Amino acid sequence: MTSPYDLTSAEQTLLSTVTDLAEGFAATAAAYDDRAELPLDHLEALTAAGVEQAILPADVGGNGVSYQAFGELIRILAQADASVATIFLMHAGAGIALAQLTAPTLGSYYADEFRRGARFANALSEPASGNTFLQPQQPAIPADGGFTLDGAKRFVSGSEIAEHLLVNALVDGVPAFFGLEPDETVETIPIWDTLGLRATRSQLLAFHSTLLRSDHRGRGLLPTDFAAIPAGLPAVSLGIADAALAALVAHARGRVIQGQPLTHQQWVQYEVADVESRLEAAKAYFRLALFHADSGLPRTIGSLSRAKLLANRVAVDVARLGVRIGGASGYLRTSPIQRHLRDAEAGQLMAYSTEVLSGQVGAEILGL
Ligand SMILES: Cc1cc2nc3c(=O)[nH]c(=O)nc-3n(C[C@H](O)[C@H](O)[C@H](O)COP(=O)(O)OP(=O)(O)OC[C@H]3O[C@@H](n4cnc5c(N)ncnc54)[C@H](O)[C@@H]3O)c2cc1C
């Protein structure tokens, strides 16, 4: 029987290229995390391998990989280095959105920039908007050539290397999207000293009468636009969960207590079976949600919301079990176990958070 999740041969080649690159990313993940340094060389390696061209949708001149392939690509990256996966996902989300939203007015400008390896970032979350990053509260005021923005956007992953920002603001009371090349009016406030996803350097940006150009304004989002970030965020958590599971298995096999490896303790077997089967279930549901997205089914966002909720939670559960199995040696900075827990916790915070998603899904089920 044909699987509904089949990938084309070009997609399989892309994923095998990314898998090869990811081996190198995994080897440096701990060091970049420790230094909270942007892994720019890894991002450049992805561009050199043609990943941007592959994931750019066909309607803006790219190869237009399926959601299925895109989700797997992000999961592979996250398993190797969750910060690389997160920055790349935010870059992809902003680059693809700007290419699609401005195509009617600016033609191929942003698609060309994305393809050549210009770095993109999402400056959407506002200090006062909480998780509702698509509903900005900060107004853009009419000015010569466009609108000026005074205010702040926070947790902008990869902002320090971004050549283009996707910014939203209220124009006449309605949310509007702009492409912005950061200039001296955009100030980076270095707040990013975090527990997890440290190498994303998701800084606070302050805007001082920054011009949002009318000719860089995009249209509103359409259901047919490629939803990179909703499709990629569950994959970030699933990749972290895979890495956390591998780390705990390696530890349990290597740690010998009173002559027996930890793998022989029954509680370890039971708990591993529990988290691994829930992880596999979350992956299966995620693939179903991506299949819905590839099929253009109307439940796409609802499915991806549930997939994020499941993936965020199972990643934390696997990583917490890793800490128990790891004991004090897994708690050392030299062990990957502690990093996976720190990264897993961040998955729940990124919008939409597990609380917001639970509210949306619960309200839908209850018919509110
Ligand atoms: C690693 C990382 C990378 C990020 N990268 C980017 C990026 O590149 N670009 C960008 O624009 N943003 C980014 N963000 C921001 C992120 O997506 C959230 O929008 C932002 O974190 C929300 O603010 P907050 O985390 O301070 O939580 P708060 O909004 O202060 O939330 C606090 C608590 O309230 C809950 N809550 C908030 N709003 C609601 C609501 N409406 N209903 C119910 N509960 C609610 C939350 O779930 C949480 O439990 C990133 C965040 C992280 C952690």
Automatic annotation (TrEMBL):
Keyword match 4Fe-4S: no
Domain (Acyl-CoA dehydrogenase/oxidase N-terminal): residue spans on this chain: 9-96
Region forming the signal peptide: none
InterPro entries for this protein: Acyl-CoA_Oxase/DH_mid-dom_sf, AcylCo_DH-like_C, AcylCo_DH/oxidase_C, AcylCoA_DH/ox_N, AcylCoA_DH/ox_N_sf, AcylCoA_DH/oxidase_NM_dom_sf
Span of domain Acyl-CoA dehydrogenase/oxidase C-terminal: 235-365
Pfam families reported for this sequence: Acyl-CoA_dh_1, Acyl-CoA_dh_N
Domain of life: Bacteria
Named cofactor requirement(s): FAD
Keyword terms: FAD, Flavoprotein
Any one GO molecular-function label of the UniProt entry: flavin adenine dinucleotide binding
PANTHER family registered for this protein in UniProt: ACYL-COA DEHYDROGENASE, ISOVALERYL-COA DEHYDROGENASE, MITOCHONDRIAL-RELATED
Family: Belongs to the acyl-CoA dehydrogenase family.
Protein name: Acyl-CoA dehydrogenase
Species this protein is from: Cryptosporangium phraense
